[in-house]
Specification:
GH, Glyco_hydro18_cat, TIM Barrel, globular, Putative chitinase, 9-stranded mixed sheet, disordered N terminus, 10 helices, chitin binding, alpha/beta
Length: 381
């Protein structure tokens, strides 16, 4: 385990930071829009330019991702980040209406062991926290987001609670010392509050999440995929046969004690594909003999729309899961489309959630789903 040899005091970092520099709608005109969080992640490793984001459809945009150095736990700003971070902020500053910006630390491809080691001591947590504040202030972000996928055991979860508390206290102190608005603190989390995959049985620290985070973002997708030999809706709103659904996951968070208004529900802009064993057996749960087209069976929404048109696929709205699937020959794709996105956003509103987020920008088709979700949230359309 790599641990820092010297402790960077919060007082010193505060001194340094305080001196740093920093669409179309289908709604009635008279309707009063509902407030809330309409967020999306911008993958810095993809080619979609931040300058092309339609900010009218969002309130918060995440830069994804930064990673902690495995030896020091300070954020590692790569040469690409050194170029893309100021470009990202600069592009969004020039867009109207304005959005708030956060950067996300971690992601699905990150090393969970590094986060476990970082969170294990007060000293290493503080080095990580100070670095996050320094980067946010240097580049002009309004918040920071943790995407630790995933704390592996009870000890990790206990340390995660300590990290949230220490981080929030540091953000409060830094804002007071600098006379600046406090940085937002958010965290992407598993779709359910309790789980036993990617490790042993454990629960997220609901009390710490409720007290110290501005909001938590359950990732309500990837329920099914290439590891299974049957088709499935990877972002099913409901599932009568299991607890693998957004309805179960979100309600588990509320039951655990996290206020609904502090939950921001994840929506995917991509689908999952399989190769059917029998083209004539093509419903949800049909036998499959491997993945279909895409990157390991993953197709972005705009690719799905184009493939459906090219292959003259049959498109079905699945009433049970409130999702879509299409099939053509042996190709089967499960995904969200306009109707299912609207239903899921209305579900979030009906439970009093704080909002929703998309993974990820650049995957939509002419902003179709982003527009529908925004209208459904703001106007119920």
């Amino acid at each position: 385990m790599g641990t820092p040899t010297t402790f960077i005091s919060l007082f010193l970092i505060l001194v340094i930071l305080c001196t740093s520099t920093v669409a179309n709608g289908d709604h009635p005109d008279h309707a009063k829009p509902s407030k809330g969080i309409r967020a999306a992640y911008w993958p810095s490793f993809n080619s979609f330019p931040a300058s092309s984001i339609q900010t009218s459809l969002f309130t918060h945009i995440y830069y994804a991702f930064l990673l902690p150095d495995p030896a020091t736990f300070k954020l590692s700003i790569t040469s690409d980040d050194q170029t893309k971070l100021p470009e990202f902020i600069g592009s969004l500053l020039n867009l109207t209406p304005p959005v708030k910006t956060l950067f996300s630390i971690g992601g699905g491809g990150s090393n969970a062991t590094v986060f476990s080691e970082m969170a294990s001591t007060k000293q290493s947590r503080q080095v990580f926290i100070n670095s996050s504040i320094e980067v946010a202030r240097k580049y002009g972000f309004q918040g920071v987001d943790l995407d630790w996928e995933f704390p592996a055991n009870v000890v990790d979860m206990s340390n995660l609670a300590l990290l949230y508390k220490q981080w929030r206290n540091s953000l409060d102190e830094e804002a007071k010392a600098c006379g600046k608005p406090r940085l937002l603190l958010t965290s992407a989390v598993y779709y359910a509050s309790e789980f036993q995959v990617y490790g042993g049985p454990r629960s997220y620290p609901a009390g710490a999440i409720s007290k110290y985070l501005d909001w938590a973002s359950p990732m309500c997708f990837d329920y099914h995929g290439s590891w299974e030999n049957f088709t499935g809706e990877h972002s099913a709103l409901y599932d009568s046969k299991s607890n693998i659904s957004t309805n179960y996951g979100i309600r588990s968070w509320i039951q655990a004690g996290v206020p609904a208004k502090k939950l921001v529900m994840g929506l995917p802009l991509y689908g999952k594909s399989w190769r059917l064993r029998d083209p004539k057996v093509n419903g949800v749960g049909a036998a499959a003999v491997g993945v279909g087209p895409g990157d390991d069976g993953i197709l972005l929404y705009y690719q799905i729309v184009e493939l459906n048109a090219q292959s003259n696929a049959t498109v079905v709205f699945d009433k049970q899961t409130k999702s879509y699937y299409s099939y053509s020959g042996t190709t089967w794709i499960g995904y969200d489309d306009v109707r299912s996105v609207a239903l899921k956003v209305r579900f979030a509103k009906s439970l009093g959630l704080g909002g929703y987020f998309f993974w990820a920008l650049g995957q939509d088709k002419d902003w179709t789903l982003s527009q529908k979700a925004s209208n459904a949230w703001k106007y119920g359309g």
